[in-house]
Design a protein that fits this description.
Elements (H helix, E strand, L loop, with lengths): L15 H17 L27 E5 L4 E4 L2 E4 L3 H12 L7 E5 L5 H13 L5 E3 L10
Parallel strand pairs: 1-4, 4-5
Antiparallel strand pairs: 1-2, 2-3
Helix pairs in contact: 2-3
Length: 141
Amino acid sequence: MKLSPSKPEEPDVNLTPMIDVVFLLLLFFMVSTSFIRESSLKVDLPEATGQMLAVKQTPIDIIINANGQFIINEITLLNPNNAELEALLKKTVGDTQDPHIIISADADTNYQHVVSAMDAAQQLGYTRLTLATRQKTSKPQ
């Protein structure tokens, strides 16, 4: 009687448990990662679409010159302290709840002046701040 030689079985690698572990790790890292950056001041960043946003109320403009001169809606203060800045801002805002405040600072303005304006708004409880910038134009070479 002639028997055919039996072929050895090739080892079979089961990838299912390894794929399950990889997906569980991926799920763990996705759930545990926080993508939100929190700060004490909320700043509305301008959008790059170039279209104007619908304005429901007139914003409060704070303009800061390079000399440290503050202009809040046409009222000028020269190097004010925080108390003066808060008083004028509160007077300008009036009864409006959380007004939209736009801070326009000269490029050469001392950084402390911008921080003072933002701090005065925060002390009064105003959270809708925008830092005004202009779009940089490319110069032909």
